[in-house]
Amino acid sequence: MADSDFATRQEMLDMWRIYRTTKEMCRDRGYNILESECSMPLEEFQRRFGTESGQINRSQMNFSAIPSDDMVKKYTPPATAKVPDPEPAIGTLWVEFNGDEAFGMKNLRDFINHLISGGYYSGVMIVIKPLSGMAMRALRAAAGLGEGPKGGVEVFLEQDLKINITKHELVPTHLLLSAEEKMQLLKRYRLKETQLPRIQVTDPVAKYYGLRRGQVVKIIRKSETAGRYASYRWAI
C-alpha cells in the first residue's frame, strides 16, 4: 500500500472516531441524538462522508442538534415573581467540522455569522490545528466578536476527540445539576457555592459536558467500602 493510500485510510478512520465521539458528547450533554448515530459502522461512515477518491468530506459531517425536554428543563432558571415564565438558557446547537489547516479570525467570523443567520443558540467548531492567537483572544473576549450567539462558541481539536475520555474506567460519572437542584444542595448543607470544591471549565471532562461558569456538577465515584459516593464541583 502506498504511503498516500495509508494516510487517506488513516484519516478516514480517525474522522470516523471523531464523528462518533462528537455525537456521543452531544448526547451526553442532553441533546436528541439517536443511538445509531453514536454507533455508526465505519463502512456506513465511508459511504456517507467519503468521496470517490477515498478522501473525507468534512463539510458533509456538519449537523445540528436539538436539546431534549430534560435538557431544556435543566437549563431553565426557576420562576420568580419578576420572571414567572423564564426562558431556557439552551437551544439548537450547530456542530461544524473545519478542514482548513489554519483557523483564524475570518473563519471565526464566518462561523459566528452562520450561527446568527441560522438562528442557532450555540456552536461547536472542530478544527485540525489550534486557532490563531488573534482568533483565540477574540473567542475569549466576547466583545471582540460583536453580537454572537447567546450560548457562545466552543472549539475542539480533532486529536482531542479521537477517543471518548468519559469512557475511561478512571473517569467517574458527571451529572449536571439544574439551577433548582443547585439551590437545594446549597440549602441542604448550608453552603455558599464558593465553598464547594471547584472544577475548571477548561478541564477536559468539563469541556466535554459543556459546563458553564457557576454551574454545579455531581460526580459519582465507585468505592470499595461504600459502593458509590457522590461529591460536587462548582465550575469556574
Automatic annotation (TrEMBL):
<protein>
    <recommendedName>
        <fullName>DNA-directed RNA polymerases I, II, and III subunit RPABC1</fullName>
    </recommendedName>
</protein>
<feature type="domain" description="RNA polymerase Rpb5 N-terminal">
    <location>
        <begin position="11"/>
        <end position="114"/>
    </location>
</feature>
<dbReference type="InterPro" id="IPR000783">
    <property type="entry name" value="RNA_pol_subH/Rpb5_C"/>
</dbReference>
<dbReference type="InterPro" id="IPR014381">
    <property type="entry name" value="Arch_Rpo5/euc_Rpb5"/>
</dbReference>
<dbReference type="GO" id="GO:0003677">
    <property type="term" value="F:DNA binding"/>
</dbReference>
<dbReference type="InterPro" id="IPR036710">
    <property type="entry name" value="RNA_pol_Rpb5_N_sf"/>
</dbReference>
<dbReference type="GO" id="GO:0003899">
    <property type="term" value="F:DNA-directed RNA polymerase activity"/>
</dbReference>
<dbReference type="GO" id="GO:0006362">
    <property type="term" value="P:transcription elongation by RNA polymerase I"/>
</dbReference>
<dbReference type="GO" id="GO:0005665">
    <property type="term" value="C:RNA polymerase II, core complex"/>
</dbReference>
<dbReference type="GO" id="GO:0005736">
    <property type="term" value="C:RNA polymerase I complex"/>
</dbReference>
<dbReference type="Pfam" id="PF01191">
    <property type="entry name" value="RNA_pol_Rpb5_C"/>
</dbReference>
<dbReference type="InterPro" id="IPR020608">
    <property type="entry name" value="RNA_pol_subH/Rpb5_CS"/>
</dbReference>
<dbReference type="GO" id="GO:0006366">
    <property type="term" value="P:transcription by RNA polymerase II"/>
</dbReference>
<keyword id="KW-0804">Transcription</keyword>
<keyword id="KW-0539">Nucleus</keyword>
<comment type="similarity">
    <text>Belongs to the archaeal Rpo5/eukaryotic RPB5 RNA polymerase subunit family.</text>
</comment>
<dbReference type="InterPro" id="IPR005571">
    <property type="entry name" value="RNA_pol_Rpb5_N"/>
</dbReference>
<feature type="domain" description="RNA polymerase subunit H/Rpb5 C-terminal">
    <location>
        <begin position="163"/>
        <end position="234"/>
    </location>
</feature>
<keyword id="KW-0240">DNA-directed RNA polymerase</keyword>
<dbReference type="GO" id="GO:0005666">
    <property type="term" value="C:RNA polymerase III complex"/>
</dbReference>
<dbReference type="GO" id="GO:0042797">
    <property type="term" value="P:tRNA transcription by RNA polymerase III"/>
</dbReference>
<dbReference type="InterPro" id="IPR035913">
    <property type="entry name" value="RPB5-like_sf"/>
</dbReference>
<dbReference type="Pfam" id="PF03871">
    <property type="entry name" value="RNA_pol_Rpb5_N"/>
</dbReference>
